[in-house]
Amino acid sequence: TVNFVRPGLAVKILSAEIAADGTAKARVQMTDLKGLPLDRLGITTPGAVSASLILATIPKGETTYKAYTTRVQTSPITSVSATQAGADTGGTWTPVADGEYLYTFGVKAPSGYDRTATHTVALYANRNLTEFDLGVNLADTTFTFVPDGSKVTVVRDIVKTASCNRCHDKLSAHGTTGRSSVEVCITCHQPQTTDPDTGNSVDMTTMIHKLHMGANLPSVKAGKPYKIIGNAQTVADFSDVNFPADVRRCEVCHDQSTTAVQKDAYLKPSRRACGSCHDDVNFATGENHADLPQVSDNQCSTCHTVKGELEFDISIKGAHTIPTQSAELPGTTFEILGVADGSPGKKPTVTFSVKDKSGKPILPSEMTR
Fold this sequence. Notes:
- It is a single chain.
- The strands form 5 sheets. This protein has a 4-stranded antiparallel β-sheet, with no helix packed on it. Strands 4-3-9-10 form a 4-stranded antiparallel β-sheet, covered by helices on one side.
- The protein is 11% helix and 25% strand.
- The longest helix is centred in the middle third of the chain and has 10 residues, at 204-213.
- The chain is an alpha+beta fold and 369 residues long.
- The protein is globular.
């Protein structure tokens, strides 16, 4: 008899619903990578599966999530308490088929919740196969729906996980819990959640811009480290991070070749997004903002258009012009006009031209090599 353990974990949310009284349920499927149903408890199939779920909504008129599943975190450093989005607690699992379970949330949607708004159930899980020397297998997924059964029309889809994985291969956070996709991250990392130890927001827009900006943040250059203190008082200091591309190249993350619905979001200025990198700007007083206070985002695009008439202006693309890639540079254009004496035994002679982009000739003696 030969026993085998096939590693891997795949999770899928088959359906979700919220009753009129706020009771939320999600039907979850757990399999290995070949589709074999898995026992969540690890009794009839190898490796117990630990799964956590988040329930969040995008309120009408807003663009970011707000979670129903929250917790209160009190800082031992500042004694400040903060409400943070997180995984549900007190929920129950009910087996309904091989590898399929009905999860009933411990938390209920609040009274009078909007049944016409977008809601998302996020799930992250891990399968522990360490006793077979196969490590901990991770997976996560989301399911977006509208409780009244209507079509989903409002989403938050700005940067795809694949864009992150070009550098963070594979994207993963919070240890071996299973959180490895942007779609799951944004249900917790939104304006609702702050770090009570430092006072820093861990909203995705703010946090991701700031930690990738790292050493180039005005606040860091002025001597204030950029830190976030997480679980078990773990300190993450991003003050020495240097982005491998020029930080003005927004399209590295906001990849315009993806299918992200809101991939052009970086072209829409806001105090939250712009102020995360330009963190020496005080929008309330106008300090470092040409003494122009901004109490809302309504007027931002009046000055900060998508593209102005000139590079290096205050338009979004102009302000992020990379000098070495400026269209104003004269540039160099080579053209091979012909090759003579290219037959065996002869020395080929190449005729070529060197000009700038305007067509003005450049002498070879003016070239470095």
